[in-house]
C-alpha cells in the first residue's frame, strides 16, 4: 500500500491516475443516469427539487471533463506509455510527477465533497457569472477543484514535454516517435498555454464572490462577457487536450491491429501541429449567441470551419491505415473501429454548429449536447476504454476475458447511439433546450427522452461488465503472452509485462531505420 | 504560391456557385427562419455525402482486410514524397473548398438574421430570474409577448440579474440577454398563431420554467390591444448601455 501511495514510478502513477479517473467516471456516470431518469418525463421526477438536479449536471460535466477525460488521457495513458514508448527509464521529474498525481487526487476529493457540503455548487461546469456569484451554492469548491486539477495539469505538461524532448532513446528521431507521443506533445503544448487562463478566470470569480471585487459586475463597471471569453479561450483548446491524445492513442490501437504503418505519418504529424496553431482562434464559436460583435462571430465561423482541414488530414491518415491491412478484431480493436464512426458522427455534426447562422437555432439545445458527447465524451472515452483493453496484458501481465469484453463493447456502442440519436432529433425538431429538468412546453419530446434513458441504462450495464472484466482479470486472469498483438513498439518489444521499475533490462537504442510500426 | 492560387479559385467558385441559396422565401422581407430551414437541408446533404463516403470506406475495408492468418502483416503502400503531399493537400483543398461553400452561405443567412427590416415593431425585453417582461413604445407592458402578424418584430433585450437567453424555437433564433448590455434579435411572424419563448442560458433553479407565451395576433386585434394597454406613464429606463459597449462607470 505504502509503496503505491508514495510511488514515483511512472507506471504506478499512471495506474493510480486510471483508478482516480475511473472513480470520477463512475460517480459522474451515476449522475448521468439520474439526469436521464429526471428527464424521462416532463415535470419534477426523481430530483427532490430543481437545484439538486442542477448539482447533478454540475458534477457530471465537471467530473467527466476535468476528472475523467483529461486525466484519463494526459494522466493515465501519458504516464504509463510515454517513457516506455520513447525508451526512457522514467519521466524527467519523477517526484514532480507524484505531486501531479497527488494534486489530481486532492481535486477528485474536493469535487466529491459536492455531495456532503451544504449548498453544493450548482453552476454547471462552465460557472458563468453573474449566476455563479449570486447563487447560494458553494462556488469556491468549484474553483478549488479547478485550481488543484489545473496545477496538476500544468506540472504534468512541463514534465512530459521535457521527457519527450530530452529522454528519447539514443537514435530516436522526431519522425520515429509513436503517433501517441506526437499527439501528447502537441496536446500538452496546448495545455501548458491555456490552463493558466482558466485558472485566472475562476480566480477572478472567487474574488468577485467572496472578496467583493467587480470584474464581472456590469453595474460596477465590470463585464459579464469577460468571463465567458476567458473560460472558452481555455475550454475550446481543452477539447484538443482531449482530442489530440485520443487520436494518437487510437492510431496505436488501429495501426497495431491492422499491422500497417499509420498512413501518411508525416502529414498526420503536420495535421496535429496545425490543430495546435488553430486552437486559440476559434473560441467565439462557444459565444455565437452571447451578444459578441457581429464581425467576430463571422470571423470565427471561418476559423472554426477551417478546423476541418487539419482534422481532415488526420482522418485521411486514419482511414488510409485500414487500407490493405491485416486486421485482427480483439476488444481493443472493436473500440478502435467504433471510434471511426463516432469520429464521423461527432465531427460532421459539428459543421452546422460551426455556422453562426445555424447555431442561432441549435445552440444550447440537445443537438449540441449530443454533438459534443459524441466527439469529445464518447469518442475519447472509447479510446480510453479500448486502450485499457489493448494495454491490459502489458499493465497486468494477464489477459482479460475477450468474450465479456466484446459483449460489454456492444452494450456500450449500441447504448450510446440509442441515447444520443434521439437528442439530435429533438434538438433540431423542437429546439429541446439543455439543462432542463422539466419540458412542459415540449410534451412531444417525451418518447425521445424515454428512448434516450433506455440507452443510458444499456451503457450502465456495459460499463459495469467492463469494470468487472478488468478487476477480475487483473487478479485472476490467465497469464498473457509477452507481445499478444505483435506490436513493434518499444513498450512491447523491449519491456517485460508488467515492466519492472526502470522499465528496460538494458538501455535502449534504436537504429535510423527503426519505427514503432515495423510489423513482422 | 501555386497552392494559394488554387485556393483562390476554389474559394471563388464556392462563393459564386451558390448565390442566394439561403436568402429566404420570396416577398419583400426575407424570413430568417425560412432561410434556416433551407440552409439546414443543404448542410445535411453535404454532411450525409461526406459521412457516407467515409463510413462505407471504413466498413468495407474493415470487412475486406480482416486478417486471414494470425501471422499476416498489412501491405499498406509506402508513399513517395509526391504522394505524401498529394494525399495531404488534395483532401485539404477539398475540405477547404467545402468550408468556403458553407461559410459563404452561412454568412448570407447571418446577414439576413442581423439586418433588421425598416418598419419592424420594436419591443423592449427585460429578463429576470425567472420571467420575461415586454414593454412597448407607448408604455404598455406585458408578461405575454403580443405581436402583430405580418410585421417583423425587433427585440431590444437586457437582463436585471444573470445571463439568460431568449429562444424562439418556432422562429429559429436566440440571443443571450445579460446585465449591462442591450442585445437584439428580430423575427418575422408571417401569420397569426401562438408559440412561446424559453430560456436557453442556465440561470438557476427555475431555468427550465422561464418561459412566456408569444401571441401573434391579427394586426387589427394587436393594435386595439396595444391602444388599450398603453399607459401615459413614461417608459421605465432599463439602465443598460447600448449593444457591445461595456457597462456603467465605476
Description:
The complex is a heterodimer of chains A (520) and B (250). Chain A is 68% helix and 0% strand. Chain A contains 18 helices and no strands. In chain A, α3 packs antiparallel against α4 and α16 packs antiparallel against α17. The longest helix of chain A is centred in the first third of the chain and has 37 residues. By secondary structure, chain B is α+β, with helices and mostly antiparallel strands. Chain B has 2 domains: 98 residues, no CATH class; 109 residues, Immunoglobulin-like (Sandwich). Chain B has a 5-stranded mixed sheet with strand order 3-2-1-5-8, with no helix packed on it. Chains A and B meet through α3, α8, α9, α10 and α11 of A and α2, α3, β7 and β9 of B.
CATH architectural type of the largest domain in chain B: Sandwich
The main sheet of chain B orders its strands as: 3-2-1-5-8
**Share of β-strand residues of chain B:** 15-25%
H and E order of chain A: HHHHHHHHHHHHHHHHHH
Main sheet record of chain B? 5 strands, mixed
Mean pLDDT of chain B: 86
> What count of structural domains of chain B?
2
Quaternary status of these chains? heterodimer
- Describe the largest sheet of chain A: none
Low-confidence segments of chain B, given as residue ranges, are 15-26, 234-250
* Fourth-level CATH superfamily of chain A: Cytochrome c oxidase-like, subunit I domain
- CATH fold call of the largest domain in chain B: Immunoglobulin-like
Question: How many structurally independent domains of chain A?
Answer: 1
Assigned CATH superfamily of the largest domain in chain B: Cupredoxins -  blue copper proteins
Stretches of chain A where pLDDT falls below 50 for ≥5 residues?
Answer: none
Mean pLDDT of chain A: 96
Quick one: overall form of chain B? Answer: elongated
Q: Helix proportion of residues of chain B, in percent? A: 25-40%
Q: Strand fraction band of chain A?
A: under 5%
Total strands of chain B: 10
